[in-house]
Write a structure and sequence with these properties.
The complex is a heterodimer of chains A (482) and B (197). In chain A, 70% of the residues lie in helices and 0% in strands. By secondary structure, chain A is mainly α. The chains are: A mainly alpha (482), B alpha+beta (197).
């Protein structure tokens, strides 16, 4: 029976150690049932403190207006939209891992998909804050929704990329949440059925919706996951495409380039995978999950990083080439006078170093499998991707067509920085709670690949591979039911 | 809501479960359900379950979303409140594609998940009888429903012979009820009728 699901013995096992199904449950549910560690408390309270600073910064912004930020003529978008695009980009890896890799039948996704999907949801929540609070009069935020109103009714402009964004981000958030939670149901039921305390029985009982593991339910669950993956795949591409339309449909030099959609999507995957690496390297260490998030997983993600980093690099060079070849004076000036040189030249070269040059080191297998280096690079990549958005937004805005509307050097106020730090607080507070109270690895999915890709199975397969024909026949046909 | 009698056999290996399911069906027993900790491919076919049409429902929901977006946007921009956006045509289909696409996906995903929950009777505070607590951990639990003709001892012996590690008989509610997992009692007591073997 097991021979039918043949998995090449050349590939390394996805789950290390000789595990049984029960051992898998124990390993993953253990952290939920144990008391949080000191490290968890420290991390959690630092995050909450950052979150509170963010809340205070927003209080200043709402009470005194957007003047609390250093935005103005001509820099109407600064740190806020930079942060928005950055967080949305990070929010792309989860769906990429869970949906696109599912469709491509990449078995290694099972170790990291749950945490990556959670990360996506939290990152999109953080991203959503920026355009909402940027509105200034945030209590009017519901004006973006097309609802029957007493002003005509006056509808939003459906031809506007900003409204497309409203639909794209909210759809993306909803679908990611549904995908994540429907996958969680069976695992929450596992926690529920092991629960010893009354409170845990109650809460996980409510959260698991009465999941029983019935075969018919699993059949529907499989169908649901597959279709949601199929829907999420074009969705995830559409979201960052639409975010790039915010810039690409404008007539601002440095923004209205046709390369933006693929370039943004590649960048989003790039930064998203870097953030997954940052989180996974911590999670596997702190929660002792090295057998499930193996060096093989880390290497696979580093390969995605070097691929997408190179695509982003190609996009940067293409932009520079077209700025020169296109023979448009304004476009040329933005790129060659105000991006690679000028007041913000430092940010351009920081972006180039972090995003294009340093990820090339991942061509070396030794470095791809080095945990310390991977962690360092995952931070470097996200710094670089933040500066990419900063370069695009600020360096295009601070020099307008008319020199009289050129702006002064833009630097953020403490409340702009505080808002950004606050979203870090929000993100990590959510992630710490998730890591403590939810199964961080998809238990049922690991169990379903355990027999075909586990270490003991691999050893058996290697043994079979090395057998002579007669031995192989004798070994495999003794219990043939067919 | 009916209370029925079930013969429950727990297996610890899916490779033993498969032939057991076939044998049990061949012997004429009525399999109520098989509870497994993870999806086992081909088990639904072995049990004789028909394929789900959830994906068809998803397709219909998607079409609904697409139609909603197209008809609503075109009504707003060409009938209800006509505006001149830079001299462009009122019916500017290419500009509507993003929202049409998003609503297709949104309707399809939300509709499918709600349908899934409805079909599987899943919701907060829904409680069901769980035949074995380790069915969500490492056991594969086959449940045979007893009819008036079933010889319970024979069914138990049959399951044990088919490879079940643990066999027992349970009287249980077959459906779902409103309840909490930390309490035995139901939130609302429904009238129950007992079907005896």
């Amino acid at each position: 029976m097991s021979l039918i699901k043949y998995e090449s013995f050349v590939r390394e096992p996805l789950v290390d150690g000789d595990k049984t199904y029960h051992q898998v449950t124990e390993d993953i549910v253990y952290t939920i049932e144990a008391k949080p560690t000191r490290l968890w408390y420290i991390g959690f309270w630092i995050s909450v403190a950052l979150l509170l600073f963010g809340v205070f910064s927003l209080y200043r912004e709402v009470t005194y207006g957007t003047g609390q930020w250093n935005l103005g003529k001509t820099i109407g978008w600064g740190w806020d939209i930079t942060n928005f695009v950055w967080w949305v980009g990070i929010g792309h890896a989860g769906t990429l891992i869970s949906a696109i890799l599912l469709l491509f039948r990449q078995g290694w996704r099972t170790g990291v998909n749950r945490a990556a999907e959670a990360m996506t949801i939290f990152a999109v929540i953080c991203a959503g804050q920026f355009p909402i609070w940027h509105m200034g009069r945030v209590w009017m935020a519901f004006f973006v929704m097309p609802y029957p109103n007493s002003r005509g009714p006056l509808w939003p402009n459906f031809n506007s990329p900003l409204l497309w964004d409203v639909f794209a981000i909210s759809t993306y958030f909803t679908v990611s949440l549904l995908f994540w939670y429907s996958g969680l149901l069976p695992d929450l039921a596992t926690v529920r059925d092991r629960a010893k305390t009354k409170l845990r029985k109650l809460l996980y009982g409510i959260a698991s919706f009465g999941w029983s593991g019935s075969t018919k339910h699993w059949q529907r669950h499989e169908s649901l996951s597959l279709v949601l993956a199929g829907l999420s795949t074009p969705l995830v591409l559409s979201v960052h495409t639409i975010v790039s339309f915010d810039f690409a449909t404008s007539v601002v030099p440095g923004w209205h380039t046709t390369i933006f959609p693929p370039y943004f999507v590649a960048g989003a995957v790039f930064s998203g995978f870097a953030m997954v690496q940052t989180l996974m390297l911590i999670v596997r260490k702190v929660m002792n999950l090295q057998d499930y998030i193996t060096l093989g997983h880390i290497e696979a993600m580093n390969k995605v990083i070097v691929l997408t980093g190179s695509i982003v690099g190609c996009a940067y060079l293409t932009e520079l080439f077209i700025a020169w070849y296109g023979a448009n004076q304004y476009e040329y000036d933005i790129f060659f006078k105000y991006r690679i040189a000028g007041a913000y030249g430092w940010s351009y070269w920081l972006m180039m170093t972090c995003n294009v040059i340093s990820p090339q080191l991942f061509w070396f297998k030794k470095l791809r499998r080095n945990i310390g280096f991977t962690f360092f690079m995952s931070v470097v990549v996200n710094v670089g991707m933040w500066f990419e958005r900063f370069v695009i937004i600020v360096s295009s805005l601070y020099r307008d067509y008319v020199p009289s509307s050129w702006s002064l050097y833009y630097r953020p106020t403490i409340y702009e920085i505080g808002f950004y730090l606050g979203t870090f607080g929000l993100f990590f507070t959510c992630f710490f709670l998730f890591a403590k109270y939810f199964p961080v690895i998809a238990i049922a999915e690991i169990k379903s690949v355990l027999k075909t890709t586990g270490e003991s199975y691999k050893a058996k397969m290697t043994e079979l591979e090395n057998m002579s024909v007669e031995e192989f026949y004798a070994k495999t046909h003794h219990n043939d039911h067919h | 809501m009916t209370i029925k009698k079930f013969v429950v056999g727990s297996f610890d290996d899916e490779e033993v479960l498969f032939p057991a399911v076939k044998k049990v069906r061949k012997a004429g027993y009525k399999i109520h359900d098989v509870y497994t900790p993870f999806p086992i491919h081909g088990l639904d076919a072995a049990m004789g379950l028909r394929d789900t049409s959830l994906h068809t429902a998803g397709f219909i929901y998607g079409l609904t979303g697409l139609t909603t977006a197209l008809s609503f946007i075109s009504w707003v921009l060409t009938r209800d409140w006509i505006q001149n956006y830079g001299g462009k045509p009122h019916f500017s289909l290419p500009a509507w594609i993003p929202i049409m696409f998003e609503l297709t996906v949104l309707f399809s995903a939300v509709g499918m998940v709600l349908t899934f929950c409805y079909l599987c009777q899943l919701a907060p505070f829904v409680k069901k009888h769980h035949f074995h607590p380790r069915a969500t951990d490492d056991l594969f639990v086959m449940v045979i429903e007893c009819t008036s003709k079933t010889n319970v001892q024979e069914a138990e012996a049959f399951l044990a012979a088919a490879g079940a590690q643990e066999v027992n008989v349970q009287l249980a509610e077959a459906g779902w009820w409103l309840g909490r997992y930390d309490m035995e009692k139901k939130l609302f007591d429904n009238k129950t009728e007992t079907v005896t073997a």
